[in-house]
Write a structure and sequence with these properties.
Elements (H helix, E strand, L loop, with lengths): L3 E5 L6 H8 L6 E2 L10 E7 L2 E7 L10 H15 L2 E7 L6 H13 L2 E7 L6 H6 L10 E2 L8 H9 L6 H13 L3 E6 L6 H9 L17 E7 L2 E7 L3 H6 L9 H10 L2 E7 L6 H12 L3 E7 L6 H14 L7 E4 L11 H13 L4 H14 L4 E2 L2 E2 L2 E8 L4 E6 L7 H14 L8 E6 L2
The structure holds guanosine-5'-diphosphate (2 copies).
Length: 440
Amino acid sequence: MLPVIALVGRPNVGKSTLFNRLTRSRDALVADLPGLTRDRKYGEGRVGGCDYIVIDTGGISGDEAGIDQRMAEQSLLAIDEADIVLFLVDGRAGLNPADEMIADHLRRNNKECWLVVNKTDGIDPDTAMADFYTLGIGQPVPIAAAHGRNVTSLIDEVLAPFMPDEEALAAEEAEKEKDDSIRIAVIGRPNVGKSTLVNRMLGEDRVVVYDQAGTTRDSIYIPYERDGQPYTLIDTAGVRRRKHITEAVEKFSIVKTLQAIKDANVVISVIDAQEGVTEQDLNMLGFVIDSGRALVVALNKWDGMTPEKREHVKSQVERRLEFAAFARFHFISALHGSGVGDLYASVNEAYDCAMAKWSTNQLTRLLEDVVADHQPPAINNRRIKLRYAHQGGSNPPIIVVHGNQTAALPGSYKRYLENRFIRYLKVRGTPIRFEFKTSD
Ligand code: GDP
Ligand code: GDP
């Protein structure tokens, strides 16, 4: 499980700045809750060997009414979801009543909490920190988020208890090796039809369900078999849980979604065709692709749409989802069951491609053919040579191409080579990564 870090603090202390520094460049996922002006933002990052999820919030100003009130509620929700809270204060502005209010809340909340004094660039950190000991949150840590000062070492320290040790990693690997099921995560915005689809896919009779206790943050893992192939469905929609727990649980959770993507072999990304492709859909797909997972896209609620509307959505899908063109697209109705069974063929194909093994021999011969058809250009009167290729990983497949001056390979040539590999290896449904290494 990825550790979850929440950034809280009053507005303007530098939470967004720190968030951007801690996450990859891609657009953040924003909790899609109606009526909120600035919701929780979610991103993924990695420091040292440790991946994590970061949540940023609008902030808590101490003067909570209207929008501020809602932002404060978001911060509290983020704290609930987090393993670690980074409480940011402004080292230049000094202590503020809102800081004290937040500290109060955090002390009562009993979460693992770090007091982070930001904006200590160009000022004496000790003087800047002196003010904040009275908050009673422990030893303050000075950083300058805007310049990245002390940020990596802070995160290193914060994540130390979550760093998997070698033994745990090996055990986890062994566990995964033993599990021969295809792990499928069904993800999507609230109300796109995930629960309906999960129920359809499981088609009660053939399912052996093991009920597992879990917090609202965890997905339920449902092992089952279909046509002799074992699967594990990672249910982010909480279908199974809702049967047993009567109290309202927040059904949709981005943390849950990100964890499920991480843990899956293949992701089924559900989009509401009647609503069309939204920004949130695109961002979620971006996360799936970044994490290298195999992907099947299900455009749901295809029933009850006029032919004109269908044409419109199809062309929108072609335009907006071009970056996911490696995936198969299905137009389905989870409600009526049409097209649902067909998803499995694409899931299986995507899994097989994601896990495919190619020998160095095979890849090198393919490389030779590709190069013979179209030579890389010469740089400084010296032709770029590509010598051999080997596989560097799977799910996603990684192809490592060795040669000289590979850093100078033009983007157009890389695309030519990648497209040829994808075509000849018949890779479908999974992203594939290419690495170019210079060995002279
Ligand atoms: P948020 O409202 O808490 O998300 O705060 P922002 O990240 O938007 O930052 C508020 C202001 O503080 C911006 O003008 C930032 O450029 C500035 N800021 C953030 N981090 C630092 C820092 O480390 N040093 C200095 N001097 N300014 C910073
Ligand atoms: P979730 O929040 O993504 O799990 O969405 P649900 O499965 O709870 O579905 C949300 C709403 O959409 C419910 O009212 C469903 O009956 C409806 N729905 C789900 N799938 C379809 C479909 O294929 N067609 C239509 N017309 N409605 C659907």
